[in-house]
Specification:
The protein has twelve helices and 17 strands. It is of the alpha/beta class and 418 residues long. The strands form four sheets. A seven-stranded mixed sheet has the order 9-8-10-11-12-16-17, covered by helices on one side. Strands 4-3-5-6-7 form a five-stranded parallel sheet, sandwiched between helices. Helix 4 links the parallel strand 5 and strand 6. Helix 2 packs parallel to helix 11, helix 3 packs parallel to helix 4 and helix 11 crosses helix 12. The radius of gyration is 21 Å and the shape is globular. The relative contact order is 0.14.
């Protein structure tokens, strides 16, 4: 097996895929119930916040994973085994993510985990997966600067989301904006993302005084003062907001933005963490025209995606899930679902559930996702895919107004991160 250099880990080292081992079973005689699970099924972990500030975004990831598991089981399972999901709720508590991850790997002996949203939750569990040689599929766009041998990153790297969004806004097509207000939630993703964005904008000739950077805590609700500052900043024209606000704080931010008379035509917001699912909780009539940068939108009009959207809506209705009549797909939903099927394909290719064999089988793997064709990078555990810009419609969906010509090779380590 080839050696791959993984940087910025909890313990830096060169990992040899052939040397990775799965978490072995503890001593003692197994119960009959556990023996039946081992013989007839494979357990997988679902590690998403079902309560707390991030539930607005993460509940749908659990739901689409359960839908995908049902599809796979109805088609015969994986290597003849039914998938048994073990769902846990870390409740938007970053320390609890690590505790729950350890429990899934050491007590429940799951073969794989699908989970996390925020970068702080992912960084909380990363050393756990490395120590116990587990496997995590992480489905959300992030700041990069990381590549773990035990994590498969199906969300966007900075060059697949942040940089294309900034390039678009500075282009003639995107409005030739020259002033940028970088507003985010105060944790690792927004701060690193804004470092990358600031350095990129400076490299393109944007004066430093035309870049403002500000942060608010998780679950922040009062945006009156901040929006007033944005309004003054935008008074001279050609100003926009690059938003890395996460979770339910987006609701009061966009509401206050509209309350103070700001609109997309005057000062557009380009969001990196707001998608169709978050818009379900907002008054989208006043958000029309604002933008988001992702790698998938529900409005992609391909047969594969239309079927995916229909299946998810039907699943939510059939299972009487909350908001069943208004459920939507979005970017992290797409990559959660894609990650599950990539794992299935890799297991079948490897003929094994063993982590090191599954990882090796993922290298260079191609897949037809709801967003279109994607490809696993041969070395860095990230997914090549198209970058898209969407404009919010009054109905809470997006018109896709720009996209790359081809899939974008992931670059987790950005030259603009320092």
């Amino acid at each position: 097996m080839k050696k791959i250099l993984f940087k910025n880990l909890s313990t830096a080292y060169i990992a040899v895929f052939a040397g990775l081992t799965v978490c072995c079973s503890g001593g003692g005689k197994k119960s009959q119930e556990k023996q039946e699970i081992d013989d007839n099924a494979v357990e997988v972990g679902i590690l998403h916040s079902l309560s707390g500030t991030m539930a607005i975004s993460e509940v749908s990831l659990r739901d689409v994973l359960l839908m995908g598991i049902e599809e796979i089981n109805n088609s015969g399972g994986v290597l003849g085994k039914k998938i048994v999901p073990r769902v846990v709720d870390p409740a938007s508590d970053w320390d609890l993510f690590a505790e729950k991850a350890k429990e899934l790997l050491t007590k429940n002996k799951v073969s794989v985990v699908f989970g996390c949203w925020t970068s702080v939750s992912r960084k909380s569990v990363l050393p756990v997966f490395e120590e116990y040689k587990g496997l995590l599929f992480y489905p959300v766009q992030y700041e990069g600067q990381e590549c773990s041998p035990n994590i498969i990153y199906t969300g966007a790297t900075p060059n697949q989301q942040l940089i294309p969004a900034a390039q678009y806004l500075m282009s003639k097509e995107g409005g030739e904006y020259k002033q940028f207000y970088l507003l985010g939630t105060d944790y690792v993703f927004p701060r690193t993302a804004n470092t990358i964005l600031r350095n990129y904008l400076l490299s393109q000739g944007i004066p430093e005084q035309h870049i403002i950077e500000e942060y608010t805590p998780f679950n922040h609700q009062d945006y009156q003062t901040i929006v007033s500052k944005i309004k003054r900043f935008a008074a001279s024209g050609k100003a926009c907001v690059l938003s890395t606000i996460n979770g339910d704080s987006n609701v009061p931010f966009y509401k206050e933005f509209a309350n103070q008379g700001l609109s997309a035509s005057h000062c557009p917001v380009m969001a990196f963490s707001v998608a169709e699912d978050e818009l379900r909780s907002m008054d989208t009539e006043f958000l029309a025209g604002h933008l988001a940068a992702w790698n998938y939108f529900q409005s992609i009009a391909t047969p594969d995606n239309l079927q995916f959207v229909e299946n998810f809506k039907n699943y939510c209705k059939t299972n009487n899930l909350p908001g069943k009549d208004a459920r939507v797909t979005d970017d992290p939903v797409c990559w959660s679902y894609t990650g599950l099927y990539l794992w299935k394909a890799a297991v079948e290719k490897a003929g094994s559930f063993e982590v090191e064999k599954v990882i090796a089988a993922l290298s260079d793997m191609e897949f037809q996702s709801p967003s279109g064709p994607v490809k696993m990078h041969p070395d860095n555990h990230h997914l090549a895919k198209k970058a898209l810009i969407g404009k919010i419609r009054a109905d809470g969906q997006f018109d896709i107004i720009w996209e790359t010509d081809d899939i974008v090779v992931p670059e987790p380590f950005s030259e603009f991160a320092k």
